[in-house]
Write a structure and sequence with these properties.
By secondary structure, the protein is α/β, with parallel strands linked by helices. It has eleven helices and eight strands. It has one domain: Rossmann fold.
């Protein structure tokens, strides 16, 4: 069992982890449960969520886990979860914006019921709507928020005239752009929190590469199973270690501009967490503001 010195901060706290039904998010939830946090797990598939909770309880028998419903690719689903949490009125002290998809292996661009490109809405816009919807619950306790990015966001570019990839689409391009957009949301959330005195601690992280998660199912289905097995065994971080950068982000004390936590190995692909400067693309304050304004137009913020 890996151990990590940042566990103690989570004891007795309420944490919310998106994407906790699989992969890295399940392991983030496991670490938090082991540390004694009460963990809210909003999932899009309850049965899968139950199985994930059972897996967590195998190593954390006393885990306090609560499943909730959330499909980040539907604004009505995000709004329903926001209402449920706000009606309950309990502060959320730790939040990990982790759920994510990459449509590698799928040639066609997918559009959600709300009319947005699927990766953009799942990875960025849905999290924007969720985090701002529950902002009163986060502000109530000076919450710490970890924003799960990707090494693929380094060097990515937002094409402001075609953020949804309607004119030119590629699955990897859409993913990189959605992850950069999510990171910029984190940067602007931290800036506004510092300016308005919201008291939030927002930090960025990415897990390196974790072939042992369930990400990119369409690509996996195209690859020889032996290649997938070998990649899982020898490449990158196992999900349990990949989860630790988000833990390090949650453990970091609040700062006016986000810090970034990544795996310490070569190119940030594997290894235990270390801190580094955010990618240059995330340092563009004007881009962060513009992204926020566009997202607020597309997913209006409930006061
Ligand atoms: N694995 C890597 O190599 C890697 C590299 C860089 C960054 N990341 C990032 O790490 C994060 C976790 O990825 P992972 O590798 O753990 O992937 P994963 O095993 O596929 O897990 C993704 C999680 O996100 C959830 N999710 C997907 N779409 C959703 C939606 N519409 N609404 C709510 N939840 C949704 C999934 O739910 P279901 O169980 O229902 O599918 C699952 O719980 C992602 O943000 C990803 O971009 C991963």
């Amino acid at each position: 069992m890996l151990s990590h010195p940042t566990h103690a901060f989570a004891a007795g706290r309420t944490a919310l982890v998106t994407g906790g039904s699989d992969g890295i998010g399940l392991e983030i939830a496991r670490w938090l449960a082991l540390a004694g946090a009460r963990v809210l797990l909003p999932v899009r598939n309850r049965e899968k969520g139950e199985r994930a909770a059972a897996r967590i309880r195998e190593s954390a028998p006393g885990a306090r886990l609560e499943l909730l419903d959330l499909d980040l690719a539907r604004l009505d689903s995000v709004a329903a979860l926001v209402s449920e949490l706000r009606d309950a009125g309990e502060p959320i002290e730790l939040a990990v914006l982790n759920a994510g998809i990459v449509q590698l292996g799928e040639r066609r661009r997918s559009v959600t019921v709300d009319g947005f490109e699927l990766a953009f809405q799942t990875n960025c816009l849905g999290h924007f709507a969720l985090a701002l919807g529950i902002l009163p619950l986060l502000r109530a306790c000076g919450a710490r928020i970890a924003v799960q990015g990707s090494v693929a966001a380094a060097g990515a570019r937002l094409r402001w005239g075609d953020l949804q990839g309607a004119q030119r689409y590629g699955a990897f391009r859409a993913y990189r752009s959605s992850k950069l957009a999510l990171g910029l949301f984190g940067v602007e959330l931290a800036r506004r929190s510092a300016a308005e005195g919201w008291g939030l601690g927002v930090q960025l992280c990415h897990p390196g590469i974790a072939p042992g998660s369930a990400i990119a199912p369409a690509l996996r289905a195209l690859l020889p199973p032996e290649l997938v097995r070998t990649a899982t065994a020898y490449l990158g971080n196992p999900p349990r270690q990949a989860a630790l950068t988000a833990l390090a982000a949650l453990a970091a004390p609040p700062t006016a501009s986000p810090r970034m936590f990544v795996p310490a190995g070569p190119f940030g692909l594997a290894g235990p967490p270390r801190e580094r400067a955010p990618f240059a693309e995330l340092e563009r304050a004007g881009d962060a503001r513009l992204l926020w304004e566009l997202a607020a137009r597309w997913a209006p913020i409930r006061p």
